[in-house]
Amino acid sequence: MKCNLPGKKKNTSMKYGRNADPRLIEIVENRDQYKIGLDDTFTFGCKMCGKCCTNREDIMLTPRDIFRMAKELQMSMQDFIQKYCESYIGPSSKFPVIRLYPEGEDRHCPLLKDRKCIVHKSKPVVCALFPIGRMFSAEQGQEMSSQNMTYLLMHHGCGDGTEKHTVRDWLTTFNIPLEDEFHIMWTNALADISKRLRDYLPKADEQEAFLLYNALFLGIYGSYHMESEFMPQFERNIKLAKELVEQITSKGGESGE
């Protein structure tokens, strides 16, 4: 598996990423208008129309998402990525990013068949949460935790108002824990690695960056045994990735002095 280096593909948004959804940008920049508490109610009834799965360029995947979907489809993570995904370097984060690669004129999710999700039981968390979103509101340099998690209610434009839910119940329905150990660990690791990469890249030559990114990409997204539990493997992989980045970027800083 290879990860495309920065500049290899057209960058449509340096701040939010090349495939950033304008709807998401609007929500992030006006987050206070969309905030919803854990025990606040919202109305939403899914009509299974597939509308939320079309015109989507922004379904970004975590290693856990890929592991669960690949396992349901009885594939390796590498084969799943090869068949359904696109990888590139986040223009702002400088972190290896994987997204579901949309198909057709309506840019629908590649896992949508006959208006139904073929991995419904294991769909990405961002899809399971819909129309709820979540983000951390930590100050710069502050560790992410469940204490600074903010939930957002998006203007979904589909479904109907036949069902009333609380955010807490909605999360429970889709087995998304309030204390989401993986999500917290993943977000903190992403922030740490991204900072080091942003500092390092201006001093690195393209070959060095290419080798580092491919090692990161394979280590973070590809080195999993499907018959084993996910979290111990993820913890090992993210620890090794952080050690690799720290080792290489520290050497880069020393050589540039």
Question: How would you describe this protein?
Answer:
This protein is α+β, with helices and mostly antiparallel strands and 257 residues long. 39% of the residues lie in helices and 14% in strands. It has 8 helices and 8 strands. Strands 1-8 form a two-stranded antiparallel sheet. Strands 2-3 form a two-stranded antiparallel ribbon. Strands 4-5 form a two-stranded antiparallel sheet. A hairpin with a 2-residue loop joins strand 4 and strand 5. Helix 2 crosses helix 3 and helix 7 runs antiparallel to helix 8. The longest helix is centred in the last third of the chain and has 26 residues. The N terminus is likely disordered.
Largest sheet: 2 strands, antiparallel
Strand order within the widest beta sheet? 1-8
Work out the helicity level: 25-40%
Low-confidence stretches: 2-16
Structural class: alpha+beta
Q: What radius of gyration results from the CA coordinates?
A: 19 Å
Through-space gap between termini: 33 Å
Please report the number of helical segments: 8
Q: What is the molecular shape? A: globular
The SSE order reads: HEHHEEEEHEEEHHHH
Overall pLDDT score: 84
Query: Would you report the number of β strands?
Result: 8
- State which percent range the strand residues make up: 5-15%
Write the layout of secondary structure elements.
Blueprint: H1 22-29, E1 41-45, H2 63-72, H3 77-84, E2 85-89, E3 96-100, E4 112-113, E5 116-117, H4 125-129, E6 132-136, E7 149-153, E8 160-166, H5 167-173, H6 181-200, H7 206-221, H8 230-255
Antiparallel strand pairs: 1-8, 2-3, 4-5, 6-7
